[in-house]
């Protein structure tokens, strides 16, 4: 019995039209639209719900303004759902009905569980050629003009008590620690075997509750780049990236999200098993990013923002100084 990952994320937003335009550019498929709610899906059926911030029935917000209001986690079966229901029945905000159970976590966030509605996929991804392993033979690596995210891979929140939150997700749902910033941050995966983290919680020096980012898994590093440049061409602002995380090994690109905080494309994270032993890190810029591009890449010139593009057909076509010789 284990949680299988994120099935749905609900935002409460101040500007529904702008947020809907952003998520269409992000590469999600719009499946329904009402005056106060727009619903999108990733390739595997993971849902992103954009709800008007004052829509009746939305769970309480953990911070002001546009932000995530609810995270829905998937489980394998109705039997699993019943067992988890017993574990959280006495927790604050317990609810049950319409195929879901839920409660409020120690940070004040509404969490729900349901039998997963995500679809199995068979997707072709680029192989990587290393010195010893040749994963791509007689085939060039792909170039993406935009991203079509596979799923919501993880969520990251600022929390008021990281140790209490880690204990809650471990004791109630069996989440496993992958790595930690002692007493400051916890990277958790939903099961012993899986990607590096499905949930990361960070306690700031002045603790507060809030959203840091929602991350979308794409096929490979090439889709991180292609997706990011499309978002840049569409006029949305980079926060940082592209770059690479040392802790999870993932390639990333973060953008500012009109629905709240940040949003990330990522690929190629570490895969862990029960044999993995959590490491401890001291927070810092070089722990966050092995390397990163400030301001992002311009989607038109394919160069770093505000850097002049090459003028010739080849990079070596440079104008001669002092006239023709």
TrEMBL record:
Q: Which residues form the VOC domain?
A: 151-268
- An example of a Pfam family matching this protein is Glyoxalase
Q: Return the annotated region ranges for Disordered.
A: 302-325
Q: Which SUPFAM superfamilies does the entry link to? A: Glyoxalase/Bleomycin resistance protein/Dihydroxybiphenyl dioxygenase (SSF54593)
From start to end residue, where is composition biased (Basic and acidic residues)?
315-325
Membrane-crossing ranges are: none
Entries under InterPro entries matching the protein: Glyas_Bleomycin-R_OHBP_Dase, Glyas_Fos-R_dOase_dom, GlyoxalaseI/FosfomycinResist, VOC_core
Q: Which PANTHER family did the record assign?
A: GLYOXALASE DOMAIN-CONTAINING PROTEIN 5, GLYOXALASE FAMILY PROTEIN
Q: What is this protein called?
A: VOC family protein
Q: Which organism is it from?
A: Pseudomonas eucalypticola
């Amino acid at each position: 019995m284990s949680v299988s990952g994120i099935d749905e994320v609900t935002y409460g937003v101040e500007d529904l039209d702008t947020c809907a335009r952003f998520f269409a550019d992000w590469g999600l498929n719009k499946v329904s639209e009402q005056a106060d709610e727009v619903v999108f899906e990733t390739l595997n059926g993971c849902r992103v719900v954009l709800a008007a911030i004052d829509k009746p029935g939305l769970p309480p917000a953990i911070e002001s303004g546009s932000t995530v209001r609810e995270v829905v986690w998937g489980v394998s079966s109705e039997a699993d759902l019943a067992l988890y229901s017993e574990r959280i029945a006495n927790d604050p905000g317990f609810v049950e009905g319409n195929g879901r159970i839920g409660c409020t976590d120690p940070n004040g966030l509404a969490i729900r569980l349901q039998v997963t509605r995500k679809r199995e996929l068979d997707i072709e991804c680029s192989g990587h050629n290393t010195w010893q392993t040749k994963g791509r033979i007689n085939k060039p690596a792909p170039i993406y003009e935009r991203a079509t995210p596979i799923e919501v891979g993880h969520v990251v929140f600022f929390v008021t008590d990281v140790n209490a939150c880690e204990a809650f997700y471990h004791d109630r749902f069996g989440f496993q620690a992958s790595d930690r910033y002692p007493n400051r941050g916890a990277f958790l995966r939903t099961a012993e075997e899986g990607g590096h983290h499905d949930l990361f919680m960070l306690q700031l020096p002045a603790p507060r509750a809030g959203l840091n980012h929602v991350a979308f898994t794409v096929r490979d590093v090439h889709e991180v780049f292609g997706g990011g440049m499309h978002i840049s061409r569409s006029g949305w602002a980079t926060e940082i990236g592209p770059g690479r995380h040392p802790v999870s090994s993932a390639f990333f690109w973060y953008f500012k999200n009109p629905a709240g905080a940040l949003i990330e494309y990522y690929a190629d994270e570490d895969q862990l098993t029960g044999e993995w032993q959590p490491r401890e890190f001291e927070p810092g810029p070089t722990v966050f990013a092995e390397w990163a591009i400030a301001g992002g890449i311009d989607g038109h010139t394919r160069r770093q923002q505000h850097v002049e593009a090459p003028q010739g057909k080849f990079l070596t076509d440079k104008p001669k100084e002092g006239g023709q010789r």
